[in-house]
Each structure stands twice: as C-alpha cells, then as structure tokens.
Backbone:
C-alpha cells in the first residue's frame, strides 16, 4: 500500500513539474519582426497590417518594424497607421540600417509608433505631399492636400507625445533631420546601433497601447521574423518603375522575335508574359499612355526598316520615338516613381545599336554579289563538254549550258571561268589555275 501511495505521489510530482516547465516556456516573451524596405504600397500595407494582426493573435510582447522607405501611397500609409494606432500590442518603428531613411509617408508611420528609434547615419523628414499624376495641380488643391497632411501628422505626433511643431514643418517645409537632431527635439526616443541593442534599450519601458498600459519585457525575448511571401515580394518588385520599364522592353522584344521567326514560340511566350506583367505594374504606377504609344511606334519603325530598308531614315525615326516615349512614359512627380534616367539612356542606346547593326547587315547582304541563281554563276569554274571555238557546251553547277568563249579556244575537258550571262548563254574564258610557289 505504501508503495502504491509513493508511486502515485511521484506521478503527481512529475505532472506538476511538467506543467511548471510548460508555463515557464510559454512565459518567454516573443517579439515579432517586420521589415519594410522600399515604396509603401498596397502590398507592403497588407504585409504590415497582417503582421500586426498575427502578433496580436499570438500575444506577442511587441512588434518591431524595421523601416527604410522613400515614401509611398497615401491610402496605404493610412491603412498602416490606423492599424498601429489601434494595436493592442506595442509597435516599435526602427529606422535602419545606417544610410536608410524614413521619408514622406515613412515620417507619418514612425511618428505613429509607440516607440520610435533610429540607427546612426539615418534621417527622417521631407513629408510634403506629392501628387502622383502628371502636370501641375492648382494652388487650391495644393493647399487642401498640404493642410490635410499637416493636420494628420500633427494629431499623430500629439497623440504619441512627440514634437508636433517639427512634424508640421516636415509637411509644410519638407524639413529633414538626422537621428541625433531627431532625439534632441523629441521626434524619436532612442538611437540604437543594431536590433539587439534596441531590444535591450526598450526593456522595462512603459507604453500605452489601444487597450492597456504595458511595461515591456524584452530581455531574452524570442525574435520571430515575419517575411513577405514570394508572391508579395514578386508583386512588390513590380511596383518599381524601372522593373516595369524593363518588362515592357522585354515584352516588345519577345513579340518582335516571334513575328520575325514564326513558330519559335519561346520569344512570343516570354514577350507575352513580360507585357502582361508590365501592364500589371502600370496599374500602380502612373504612366503617360502617349509615351507608351511612342515606344511601341519606335519598335514598329525598326521592324519596317529591317524588311524595307530606307538606309537609316526609319531607324532614326525609331530612335527618336523611343527616347521621347521613354522620357514621357512616367508622369509621376514623386522621385521614387520616376524611371531612372540612366536606364532610359542605356535601354535606348542598346535598342538603337541592335537595330542599326541589323540594318547594316541587311544593307550589306543587299549589296553582296548573288551566290545563287543565274547571277551566282559569274566567277564560277566549269568543265568544257565540247570544244569551244568559239561556241560549245559546258557543265557547271550540275547543269549543261550553252557557252561561247571570249579569247582563245577551249578544248573539251578543259576548265572555263564564267565572265557574264547573255540571254540563255554563258560568256566564258579558259581558266588558268595559279600554281603555288614551293
């Protein structure tokens, strides 16, 4: 009986100890880590909002958003900010790495965080609203956009207890400051060399979330990185205007290759896919369709030049149309939505060089002496099947021809060289082989 009681107690102790171990393991804090690099758009907005929701559902200690952005779309920025302001867990924005920035929409997101930190060698500011469309907008609309953005950033800064006066200047005057200046005037709370230092610094800091006041426990916390899916990374890359521009040219080249060599399929498939992806990208990038038509027209001129050579006239027109269309293609005033000038020049030069090369080869072939048909017989050597004095028959290129000699007579079996073609007869002369010097 005593043995049974002992075994029973031992089992209870084991169960209790396992329970304690499980509770201890579950008590270890977790920090969710997101990385937002590049333009803020619907893809990155979905990524950040989804990451915050996952962290809330798992009861994370906090979420750190590593930020390096030139700005982005207003609607996407506001979606992120609304989620940050209403989050039940603390959100820390960390502008990094060194050389990174939080510009334009990135300023709003940084100010909306519970804790804002920056790495050495980073900057924040220049939050003046920029119209994405082409041309100038009227002064009244400019004032509306500016006032709306200024009021929005001011209320965010005031809610988080940050420098609202500077925040408003970042919108109205596009001021930008370094991390040292930012911490001195109360725009951010901390400067951290790396993520580990940031996690150490914020341990024990008290923050107010949408649901409670919380003291952060980040020491020895488990870092859980949340990365973009392959699909999101792919779609995010398409929002780069330079990528869209390259896809456009790949598509045009592919379609051109398919028309030049029907039935090869591969160029047509690659070209079709590239064109579709380019037009998908253009849905999130404001473009000038007049510029797009000029680019297509330039390619058409190149094709016509290959099949109907005009000795460079259409090529010159194609190059001009291509360059003008490329410069006109992006109608965005925001710098991060413009196509790189270097890319435009390099693609235009490469395309022009290719078609000039193709044109020169075409002209060279046109001026080349014929090597087939009747004209191809001139300069060729045949055998006299009869005596030529001056007329007779020769055998050349597997055919019998009537021929007449020009000069000395030719005996049967001797070699002759074709000088010219006259009606259905060949004018030939005796062929004298050059003897090699030994």
Residues:
């Amino acid at each position: 009986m005593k043995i049974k009681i002992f075994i029973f107690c031992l089992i209870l102790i084991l169960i209790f100890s396992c329970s304690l171990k499980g509770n201890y393991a579950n008590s270890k804090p977790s920090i969710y880590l997101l990385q937002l690099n590049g333009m803020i758009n619907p893809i990155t907005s979905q990524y950040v909002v989804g990451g915050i929701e996952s962290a809330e559902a798992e009861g994370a200690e906090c979420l750190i958003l590593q930020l390096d952005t030139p700005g982005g779309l207003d609607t996407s920025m506001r979606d992120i900010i609304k989620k940050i302001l209403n989050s039940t867990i603390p959100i820390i924005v960390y502008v990094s790495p060194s050389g990174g920035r939080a510009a334009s929409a990135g300023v709003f997101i940084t100010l909306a965080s519970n804790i804002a930190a920056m790495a050495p060698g980073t900057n924040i500011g220049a939050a003046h609203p920029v119209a994405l469309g082409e041309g100038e907008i009227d002064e009244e609309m400019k004032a509306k956009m500016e006032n709306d953005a200024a009021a929005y950033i001011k209320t965010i800064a005031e809610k988080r207890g940050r420098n609202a006066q500077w925040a408003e200047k970042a919108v109205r005057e596009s001021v930008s400051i370094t991390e040292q200046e930012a911490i001195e005037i109360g725009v951010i709370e901390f400067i951290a060399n790396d993520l580990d230092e940031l996690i150490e610094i914020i341990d024990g800091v008290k923050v107010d979330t949408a649901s409670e006041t919380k003291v952060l426990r980040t020491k020895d916390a488990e870092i859980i990185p949340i990365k973009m899916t392959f699909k999101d990374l792919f779609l995010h890359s398409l929002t780069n205007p330079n990528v869209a521009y390259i896809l456009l040219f790949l598509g045009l080249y592919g379609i051109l290759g398919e028309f030049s060599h029907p039935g090869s399929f591969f160029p047509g498939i690659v070209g079709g896919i590239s064109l579709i992806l380019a037009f998908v990208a253009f849905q999130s990038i404001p473009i000038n369709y007049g510029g797009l038509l000029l680019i297509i027209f330039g390619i058409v001129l190149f094709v016509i030049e290959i099949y109907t050579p005009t000795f460079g006239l259409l090529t010159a027109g194609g190059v001009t149309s291509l360059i003008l269309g490329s410069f006109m293609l992006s109608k965005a005033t925001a710098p991060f939505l413009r196509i790189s000038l270097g890319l435009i020049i390099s693609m235009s030069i490469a395309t022009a060089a290719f078609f000039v090369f193709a044109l020169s080869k075409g002209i060279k072939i046109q001026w080349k002496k014929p090597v087939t048909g009747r004209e191809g017989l001139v300069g060729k050597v045949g055998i006299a099947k009869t005596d030529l004095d001056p007329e007779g028959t020769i055998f050349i290129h597997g055919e019998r021809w009537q021929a007449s000699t020009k000069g000395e007579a030719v005996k049967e079996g001797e070699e002759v060289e074709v000088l010219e073609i006259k009606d259905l007869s060949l004018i030939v002369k005796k062929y004298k082989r050059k003897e090699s010097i030994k």
